[in-house]
Design a protein that fits this description.
Strand order of the largest sheet: 1-2-4-3
Distance between the termini: 26 Å
CATH class of the largest domain: Alpha Beta
Helix content: 40-55%
CATH architecture of the largest domain: 2-Layer Sandwich
Number of strands: 7
Number of helices: 6
Length: 187
């Protein structure tokens, strides 16, 4: 359902989740996901608190249309990531006690930085090549931590913090800069 809050036009999606989340896609469209029973005033308060950031993300996405990488440039980025990422995953896998994993894949994803499947396959977004090395390491540690805790519990975050004590700053960097990186994807 399309809604407007001030200058922010957004799609409201009611879900079974317990969290409120906001996403700006590569074309500058805003989607707010909210729990089914959440009052609209709570949603509007959330938008009000994040108004400046949302407007910046929308502007960046719309400007980014002309800043997208060419298919050839993206292919080169994927190629570079396929050289760098497996080495970093192996380094952190050993640092974390030799965690058993499946294969490591690099993808040009549009909305995720990484994932870890039940069988231990790790997938990483090629665009992380353009992020600071510490942010790439955080994403890798995050995904490897799922091999010990397949959730986002306190125990999970404790594992992440054990190996990446500045993980909160890395997450903040992704929140503040991730949209610009994702907008580079030519797809």
């Amino acid at each position: 359902m399309k809604k407007a809050f001030g200058e922010i036009e957004y799609e409201l999606v009611r879900t079974g989740t317990s969290r409120l989340s906001l996403k700006v896609d590569r074309d500058g469209n805003v989607t707010v996901r909210a729990p089914r029973g959440m009052d609209i005033s709570v949603i509007e308060n959330f938008l009000s608190r994040h108004r400046e950031k949302v407007n910046e993300m929308v502007s960046t996405a719309r400007e980014g249309k002309s800043l997208r990488l060419s298919k050839e440039e993206m292919d080169a980025l994927v190629k570079k990531a396929r050289k760098v990422f497996p080495e970093r995953v192996e380094y952190w896998r050993l640092m974390m006690g030799g965690i058993a994993i499946g294969k490591v894949t690099v993808r040009s994803q549009l909305s995720r930085w990484g994932s870890c499947s039940q069988n231990g396959n790790i997938s990483l977004n090629a665009l992380l090549v353009e992020a600071p090395p510490r942010v790439l390491d955080y994403v890798i540690v995050h995904e490897l931590a799922h091999r010990l805790q397949m959730n986002h519990s306190k125990a999970f975050w404790s594992v992440v913090q054990q190996y990446c004590d500045d993980y909160k700053e890395c997450r903040k960097w992704l929140r503040e800069n991730g949209g610009r990186l994702m907008a580079l994807n030519p797809r």
